[in-house]
Specification:
mainly alpha, 5 helices
């Protein structure tokens, strides 16, 4: 084979363990939201500077409880900060793992496609008269182009007749 970027062989036990770990993650992270595109667009976002503002606001709120409105839930605000601090490093790890999974999937696909093309090229050259013509034609359908429909000829516009007054 000309290319072998990935050579993984998942055992049945490994796949079972992965499935169990994913189920555990799904259970542990069941409270995560799934926002719609519209919800994502309309939400107030928090960037680095905004996060610093929110953390400073926590300190100011804690020192000035008497001036906060009665319906301001400082405990819930602080739980949100704690949730952010707990969630962020775990999501960073998941993101890295997901990216590695995407990269591995791409590399496996590349290995397959590169080697299939190499094998097909050899089959085209050396497979003649070897009883594989039907199989070669079957593989060739991957590269078959459908009939091209010719573009409709442009119809020239008829000149407008002069208006009679």
């Amino acid at each position: 084979m000309a290319q072998n970027l990935v050579d993984l062989d998942f055992t049945a036990d490994a796949l079972t363990a992965i499935a169990a770990a994913l189920a555990s993650l799904e259970t542990g992270l069941a409270g995560l939201l799934a926002l719609t595109a519209d919800q994502r667009q309309t939400l107030t976002k928090m960037g680095d500077k905004s996060e610093a503002f929110c953390r400073k606001a926590d300190a100011v709120f804690g020192e000035n409880l008497a001036i906060l409105p009665a319906n301001f839930d400082l405990a819930a605000y602080r739980r949100d900060l704690a949730t952010l601090d707990a969630l962020r490093p775990r999501l960073a790890r998941l993101s890295k793992l997901s990216q590695r999974g995407d990269d591995t999937q791409m590399a496996v696909g590349s290995d397959l496609m590169t080697n299939a093309l190499e094998g097909y090229a050899v089959l085209k050259v050396t497979g003649k008269g070897q009883g594989v013509d039907d199989l070669r034609r079957m593989l060739a359908t991957r590269f078959a182009r459908g009939p091209r429909t010719p573009a409709a000829p442009a119809i020239p516009a008829e000149p407008a007749e002069p208006a009679v007054a």
